[in-house]
Amino acid sequence: MIRLLVNAAIVLVFLIVFSYIGAIVFPGLPAASASVGDIGRNFLLLLLPVGLMSLMGYLLGRGIRSVKNSFESLGLTYVSAFMIGGVLALLTVLNFGYSAHINFNWLGEAWYDRLLTIFLIGAPITLAFLA
């Protein structure tokens, strides 16, 4: 349980870092004039995608570590990176108000840039659960 909480903190740090470089936008952040209750509620709602990604990453990481063949585990790691990034992409496409939204045009306008953005967001989070 402690390891899951530590990995959830790592996911939150990665999301904050990605928000500083423009890959992710947090639309639910309250204004400076908001009340303390609004700030606390909005922060707890921002933790929803972190918890969802942490649970998914934990389960995928346990599954990858249980595979004995290194080639299979390498393939599962790449697929897991797309799946974890896909969680944020799904939250973006469904337009959940308080979750983190991916900036799909972060790397450019080509058709493969959106897939690369999803992979680059999911890869460090996946590796946090494998280490």
Overview of the molecule:
- With 131 residues, the protein is mainly alpha-helical.
- It is built from 4 helices and 2 strands; from the N terminus they run αβααβα.
- The two termini are 16 Å apart.
- The mean pLDDT is 83.
Order of helices and strands: HEHHEH
* Low-pLDDT segments, ≥5 res: none
Mean pLDDT: 83
Report the helical percentage.
Answer: over 70%
The main sheet orders its strands as 1-2
Helical run tally: 4
User: How many beta strands in the DSSP annotation?
Assistant: 2
Distance between the termini: 16 Å
Largest sheet descriptor: 2 strands, antiparallel
Give the DSSP E fraction (strand runs of 2 or more residues).
Answer: under 5%
Compute the CA-based radius of gyration. 15 Å
| Structure class | mainly alpha
Tertiary shape: globular
Q: How is the secondary structure organized here?
A:
Layout: H1 2-20, E1 24-25, H2 36-65, H3 70-93, E2 101-102, H4 111-130
Antiparallel strand pairs: 1-2
Helix pairs in contact: 1-2, 1-4, 2-3, 2-4, 3-4
